[in-house]
Amino acid sequence: MSEIACNLSRIRASLPEGVTLVAVSKTHPAEAIREAYDAGQRIFGESRPQELCAKHEALPEGIEWHMIGHLQTNKVRQIVPFVRMIQSVDSARLAETIQREAARCGRTIDILLEIHVAQEETKSGWDVGELKRYLDSAPFRSMPNIRVRGVMGIATNTDDEAVVRRDFGELKRCFDLLRPYFGVHFDTLSMGMSHDYLLAVECGSTMVRVGSSIFGERDYTNEK
Ligand SMILES: *Cc1c(COP(=O)(O)O)cnc(C)c1O
Is ligand 1 within 6 A of the CB of residue 112? Predict the structure, then answer.
C-alpha cells in the first residue's frame, strides 16, 4: 500500500460513521491526488481557484471538489462551473456573486458559512452577530442557486487544548443557532484539521478537512 493510502485508511478508521473526510490537497501534485483517488477518496479540498481549476482538468470527473480557502469575488466565475461545495463563504457580497454566477451556468452550489472564532485576527469569517443580523433579512430566499449546508470554521492555532475545545464549542453553538434559518439541508459542521480533527469530532464535527496527515507536510518554497 502507498503511504497516502496507508494514511487514508488509518484516518478513516479513526472517524465515526457519519463524519465526512475532505482530503486537503493544496500544494500537492495531481499524482498525489490520484493515489488518494485510487485508494477510494473522492472529496478533495483546495484553497486557490487557479490550482483548483488546473487539478479539476487533470483529474477524474468523479472527484467532488471543495473550495476551502479565502475566495475573492472576481475568482468565483472560474470555479462555479464544476465545484461541489464552497466552504469559505465569509461575506454577503461573496454569496451574491456565487448566486449570480451559479444562475448563469444553471447550477446550484452547496455552500458553508465560514464563522470566525479563532483568536487570530488575521483569519477570515463572519462574526456570528453580524451574520445573524444579515440572516434576519432572509437574503437566501432570493438566492435560489445557493444551498446553505452549514457552517465551517478554523480553531485557534495553539497547543492549548482548552482554547481549541472552546473554539469548536463556539462553532457548534453557531451551527445550532443558525439551523432554524435553513431547515433539513443544513446538516454540515465542517471543523477539524490534521492536528485537531479528533477533538473536533468529539465536539460535534460532521466534516473534517485533513491535509498534511494524508499527503505529508506542504512545501511553500515554490510560491510567489
Ligand atoms: C490547509 C487547510 C486545512 C488542512 O490543514 P492540515 O493541517 O494540513 O490538515 C484545512 N482547512 C483549511 C481551511 C485549510 O486551509
Answer: no
211 lines ligand 1 (CB under 6 A): yes
Average pLDDT value for residue range 189-208: 98
Shortest-distance atom of ligand 1 to CA 87: 13
> In testing the pocket of ligand 1, which one of 27, 193, 217 has its CB within 8 Å of the most ligand atoms?
193
State the Cα–Cα distance between residues 66 and 52, nearest whole angstrom: 9
Predicted pLDDT at 224: 42
Contacts of residue 211, Cβ cutoff 8 Å, sequence gap at least 6? 23, 24, 25, 26, 45, 193, 194, 218
Asked whether residue 81 carries a pLDDT value surpassing 70, the answer given is: yes
User: Could you state, in order of their start, the residue ranges of all structural domains in the chain?
Assistant: 3-222
Centroid of ligand 1 to alpha carbon of 142 (angstroms): 32
Among all chains, which residue has been given the C-alpha cell 471543495?
66
Percent with pLDDT over 70 in the chain: 98
Poorest-confidence range of 114-123, 142-151, 187-196, 200-209?
114-123
What CATH topology corresponds to 3-222? TIM Barrel (3.20.20)
Q: Can you name the residues that pair with 111 across neighbouring β-strands?
A: 86, 148
Question: For ligand 1, is residue 210 a contact (CB within 6 Å)?
Answer: yes
